[in-house]
């Protein structure tokens, strides 16, 4: 069954930082698993023209083996030490969820199945997208924990559309779909700005649900420490990061570049601060379009963001005992 779920890395993709590839999700023994979910549900036939589906492999790419050794074995000032802090932490790369181009929904079914297996092994999941539709099956899989979960969402856009062109599980809808899941309780949305697919009705729906919406301008005014204070204590949390929630000077490789997003210090503070508030069950990084990158800035910052998530999780003691 796992062979039908998972496409192994090969000539088109190395594993993230050289961590071992594992396809057997039924017997998973890992503290952290990295999983690519390349395809969201398309809104139109021409949707395949963008290259967000190439992002999982692009994020994994390292210049050479010396870079991998350097990153894993040298002092990291973002973390105050080595990536894994000298601890026995098992990290694996589970490759990409396979797709069936004759049945787009099958990719989501396989993604949810893979995520459920990973979560059921008590493994923290780092998902690489793909557009912002791909967290929908991952958030469905969070049901296995059986506890209320706080969703923290970084984005330029609200993502509360019910449907676009009749499709209800595309990149404009993940937060509305999350709000329908009984295991998702609090929703905190950070970084909204500019113009997206939301209309007044979607904003009203989000506020009626009780979502805390901290737009980019309020976030800059009050600072990330105050944003963290507004997130309920204790966890557990799930973190979904749309790359366009960050300022395009940090991640230019997005289709909807919008000025005024989170800078590097703010997103780093959010990741470390959230992990120190309570257990983060997983995170995703989505909406990167590799062909839009400038000087490899996006890929460098994506790698740094994932390393900060890993390093902060290790130091929070997630994997001890």
Furnish the topology, listing elements before pairings.
Layout lengths: L1 H4 E2 L24 E6 L17 H6 L4 H9 L17 E7 L6 H17 L3 E6 L5 H7 L7 E6 L19 H6 L4 E7 L9 H10 L2 E3 L1 H7 L1 H7 L3 E9 L21 H14 E9 L10 H19 L6
Parallel strand pairs: 2-3, 2-4, 4-9, 5-6, 5-8, 6-7, 8-9
Antiparallel strand pairs: 1-3
Helix pairs in contact: 4-5, 9-10, 10-11
Please summarize what this structure is:
The chain has 321 residues and is an alpha/beta fold. It has helices at residues 2-5, 55-60, 65-73, 104-120, 135-141, 174-179, 200-209, 216-222, 224-230, 264-277, 297-315, and strands at residues 6-7, 32-37, 91-97, 124-129, 149-154, 184-190, 212-214, 234-242, 278-286.
Question: What labels would you give this structure?
Answer:
9 strands, 17% strand, 11 helices, alpha/beta, 321 residues, Arginase, Chain A, nine-stranded mixed beta sheet
Shape verdict: globular
Q: Structural class given helices, strands, pairing?
A: alpha/beta
Number of domains: 1
Superfamily at the CATH H level? Answer: Ureohydrolase domain
Report the order of strands and helices: HEEHHEHEHEHEHEHHEHEH
CATH topology: Arginase, Chain A
CATH class: Alpha Beta
The main pleated sheet reads as: 9 strands, mixed
Radius of gyration: 18 Å
The helix tally amounts to 11
Q: Architecture, CATH level 2? A: 3-Layer(aba) Sandwich
Q: Tell me, rounded to a whole number, the average pLDDT.
A: 93
